[in-house]
Amino acid sequence: MGLIGAAMTMGCKKDNNEGDAPSGSSKYLKSFVTTTDGESATYVLTYDSKKRLVGYGSEQDDYRSKITYDNRDNPTKFELESENQTQVFVITYNDAGVPVSAISTLTDLDNPGETIETDITYEVANGKINKMRFTDETGHETSYTLGYAGNNLTKVALETEEGKLELTWKYGTKKSPFGAARFKYLVIPDLFSVFSSENEIIESKLDFLGIGSATSTFSYVYDAAGYPTSGTETDEDGHKTTTTYQYQ
Questions:
Q1: Position 184 confidence tier, pLDDT thresholds 50, 70, 90
Q2: How far is CA 167 from CA 112, 156, 164, 192, in A?
């Protein structure tokens, strides 16, 4: 998780979301710890009284976030802070609760008077965002095209003036540790591959089109309800990252 860059880093009324929203029996992820080459980072997730995700972050990774909702449970503001930068997304919805546009404001904390604003528009079909367009103050455009299988995000194609890349995911049949906190609409790229799917990721691939690709595989230990209690990511070179999960 982190602030997005060019190379990537619930609806109307609540009852209209029930087909995609987590059930009342879901386990809510409280924290997770990732360890790579002996270095660990702990992420903590916080929820409000309605069990909506309102924050997540890590002291070790110098990352903090805050999420604000309107009275129809639509996330209308994401405030992200990492590595001396803040990025704030303000999302606008139509009367049906579908995201239409957003504004991103990026601020360098070492130069707080200097900000970069980016306009974002969404294309929505079948209850999901299938395209996001980012246009900065100079007119440069970045687009994300999203693909799904059921309630799982399976593909993100990023296109900029500098080139293209594609992210794809394959899933198992058990639970995503982030499933109860996932969002109906993936209105910011920071949600991709984290708060985006109901099943656990078993493979991810990053393809720099025309240059090369990198694939990672994932294995897990599950509890009796099918939620991962720990997992291991292995890249093509055999390097491993382990993660443990705690629920509430």
A1: very high
A2: 33, 5, 10, 10
DSSP 27: P
Which is nearest to 89 in space by CA: 107, 101, 68, 105? 105
Which DSSP state fits 51? -
> Do 196 and 186 meet the contact criterion of CB atoms below 8 Å apart?
yes
Percent of the chain with pLDDT over 90: 81
Closest CA to 148 of 177, 165, 128: 128
| C-alpha 178: how far from chain center | 10
CB 232 within 8 A of CB 245: no
- Beta-carbon neighbour count of residue 46 at 10 Å? 15
What is the average pLDDT across 97-117?
92
- Could you give the CA distance from residue 244 to residue 193 in angstroms, rounded to a whole number? 17
CB atoms inside a 10 Å sphere around CB 185:
22
How long is the chain? 248
For residue 234, the SS3 value is strand
